[in-house]
Amino acid sequence: MVNTRRNGQPNGDDEAPNFEAMIANALPTILPGLTTKLTTRITNDIRNGAGSSNGSGGGAPPTDIYVWIERFGKLKPLSFSSAATTTEAEDWITHMEKLFNVLGCTDNFKTRLATFKLEGNELNWWKAYKQAKGGEDFATTCTWSNFRDIFYQHYFPLSEQQRFEREYSSIYQFESEPSGEYMQRFLWLVSFVGPVAGDARRQARHFKRGLK
């Protein structure tokens, strides 16, 4: 990606907008062509960030993992044993997030539900990783965001992770690029760089700096 950035920078003292609200408001209008994959990720991230994960709207969500496994199984989740490309790995994560949204699954069960569908070499990898981190206690407390980062680090070489980070740090809106496409590209990179992107306020400032 070209590293040249627009000279006009917003005032660093300006109050950053509510990034979650900005995304939610923009999706129906400026991003009508946004892919289902990205929409699922954005919606899931906003929901997790807001601390609301009961999508059913009625009553408290189940607190028993076996109830979640039963509901999860009825949606026929895809198993994952290997991926020939990083895109296949990303697609499986997106598939899991789509099911979690449908279920209204709480964050503390997502990792265990997803890893329940790992098979073959991937199951062996997860068992070894989990054991090194403390066994079942780690699996029980591992948030979905943490698992997703671990999974991507497993599948994305360090060189590729660093390339995403460089691309994110220098991102700006191209001369003829619609605002919606710039936002889509920005959010796609945020999903890969993880903690490097910072919190919502920091992301909002970075997004504004790249706007033309």
TrEMBL record:
InterPro entries per the UniProt record, alphabetical: Retrotrans_gag_dom (IPR005162)
One Pfam family this sequence matches: Retrotrans_gag
Ranges of residues in domain Retrotransposon gag: 112-212
Protein name per UniProt: Zinc finger, CCHC-type, Retrotransposon gag domain protein
Organism: Artemisia annua
